[in-house]
Amino acid sequence: MTDAAAPIDHAEPRSRSVIAGSYLDSEGGGLSEWLLTTDHKRIALLYAVMITAFFFIGGAAATLMRLELVSPAGHFLTDDEYNRVFTLHGIIMVWFFLVPLIPATFGNFFLPLMIGAPDVAFPKLNLMSWYLTLIGGLCVLAALLMGGVDTGWTFYPPYSTAFSNSNVALAVLGVIIAGFGTIATGVNFVATTHTLRAPGMTWFRLPLFVWTVYATSLVMILATPVLAITLMLVAADRLFGLPVFDGFRGGDPLLFQHLFWFYSHPAVYIMILPAMGVVTEIITCFARRRVFGYAMMVYAVLAIAIIGFAVWGHHMFVSGQSVFANLVFSFLSFIVAVPSAIKVFNWTATLYRGQITFEAPMLYALGFVGLFTIGGLTGLFLASVPIDIQVTGTYFVVAHFHYVMVGGAVSAYFAGLHFWWPKITGRLYSEAWARFAAVLMFFGFNFTFFPQFILGYLGMPRRYHTYPAEFQPWNVMSSTGAVVLAAAYALPLFYLVWSCFYGKISPADPWHAKGLEWRTSSPPPKRNFLRTPVVTEEPYDYHDPGAAPQAEARPVDAARLAAVAPRPIGGAHG
Amino acid sequence: MAEAALASRTPNALREPWSQLSRQREAATLGMWLFLMSEMLFFGALFMAFSFSRALDPAAFAEAARHAEIAYGAANTAVLVTSSLTITIAVRAADAARGKLAARLLAATATLGVAFLVIKGFEYRDDLRHHLFPGHDFALGRNATQIFWAFYWAMTGVHAIHLTVGVVLVLRLFWLVRRGRMSLASPQLEVTSLYWHLVDAFWIVLFPTLYVAARG
Amino acid sequence: MTAKAQRVAWLGPILAWVVLLFATAAVAWLGVGASGGLRFGGALALAALMLGTLAFGLVGVGRNPALLRLVAGAAFLFLALMFFLSFADLMTRLR
After folding, report:
1. Which CATH number belongs to the domain containing residue A429 in this structure?
2. Has residue A422 been placed in a domain?
């Protein structure tokens, strides 16, 4: 009763190669076939390569920062250089890594598969999105090569408009162009979800990953244009002298902050919502349980997306906003935590009485739940105005957002990467190495960022590279943790790439999971399914509704464990 | 008769991943509306910023706004509204398989768009002659009058860029329809007209707001 | 399409266009003729009228499926949020 009853569509029988007959083989392997593809799966891989490259660049900046912060007096960067380094780190990591991280890779690859479609609604537009992101990234890199930007990733005027002697216009232009790519992706995904669902795939049969990508796409469409126009006004001031935010001429710098954070707060929901979707897919699979409270999970996702547009002022509590506005935004920020909390409770309830196994995706997903909870709770501290007045602009805030963005979204990315690796590549990765990397990442992450909560509470400001000597032990701890974290990020690069050449060949459904993506071959054929699927099951149909399954041996265990460790498992059937 | 023959000769509008043209049109229309939604936030944020800035110093904005030439603004509004009419009828003509009429109306739309830009060009020239560009030789002083004019140049400039893109898109459609290279049933016609109407909508709000209401 | 239906299809847009031209003239008149609250309120009211006429008379939003009207409405909702909360700050600052 446990296994999927739905048949699996196999592409042509595997001959010599894992990829023969699949999307990896269908158009030829030349560079121009890849760069002109309109296949959503190939575009997803193009994004993955781009994002990885940007991650290394942003990570290099982080490395420089943590190296510099080992000693209280700046020992190899000047003030100005440090400003440029943390600005680069922020710009690259926010717009060219975190925003596209899950939607552009797993969203692109799996949205059509999960709804039973052959591709997205506008395949050419999909490719255009990738190019827009790439061009934007190249503009930012050009700005870097020309000396960088020193305004912080937030570009606050009047410094960015009137005083900074750095390449502000070029950098904001890059972000604007990338933003158009994001909007195009959002339009594509929403239209796809509305119009290309397979017969029988009703809205409330969709996997939660699809719901989160859908909500994320709505946020992308509504929020990103506001960023675009705001940065355009900054560029207009830099290039043409148009003084919209100039306090000396009767403008208001706080207006910039209202506009900027109107986008940038929903932007963090763009980063976290798809991560939540990935985690739901994985927790249900590796606990062998239906998700607890599917409908509430859907409403929570939509609530986060909508209420998330109303909380931006919590970034401006000490900027000169009125007390009344502070109270309103504080209140709304408390409210927006409620749907997130509901999701954490529901994941926990999903795990309850589950038949949990700890493969690497599950380790990352469980790590997400813990780290996101810490990040989210500290967000609540920051939503409280009195606390925020104490810790705003300190490392407390830095720790908070790294817990949710890195501990949260990046963990979820790695979870999805491992979960879906067999589907994308047709290969199995080394489970032992993967589990090691997951645990190492969890420890390295906490080692890096937990001391920063303490540093912030003690008063160390962010964006400073010199600090009082009494803060040094915490900084050294954080920098040491960063080394461990870097190792944990590098490891998957090795064993995943190794698996592409030498890994065991994966069956179509190595995890015995639910979801239409597992009902086609690994890797999938170019048009995803040989026949359009017809959906009759509810999502996460791992057991009868209301049933709490007893412990039973899963047929997959024997095969999986035999693949990585030669000891036979006694008592297994099937 | 010639229309029907033309329509039957033009290539199939169906594209990947669609199996039915009606579904494709639905998706294209939805996609364009979603894009319009983003554009509404784009221009809407500009209006919010303008209103916010005006609330900081209504008197300076009133003084600055009095230098905006209503005649130019009204003429441009009339031109643009007419172009919205012509493109609406062009799309309906295409739906009724009247390709030649559709082509003519598309040409009229593009012409009106260019007319707008020409009139705007004259207006910009006058504005510059009167030193109404913010900077050290600005005519009205170093105060919020410069903020008003910053918004004027930014908003009309952004609008003009959008309009130029629209003109190019409409000209492309005109050329394709005229040559019979595009099916009259293609979603592109309606989708382009939606974009055109959006550009018109932005101007329809801009003219009363900047040229008139701001005068106080 | 019948000839009558074809004529009706042109009439709606032409009527909307006429309304828009009159409204434009009214706005221009307010700009030169009126002053104060009448000018401010009148201009904004005419802007809303013109937007509605464009949307319903030329774009034909009223004939659209519910989904598209929801999309159009959603943009206004979030814009309203942006206006409202930003002005909540501005209007309650201590001078």
Report:
1. 1.20.210.10
2. yes
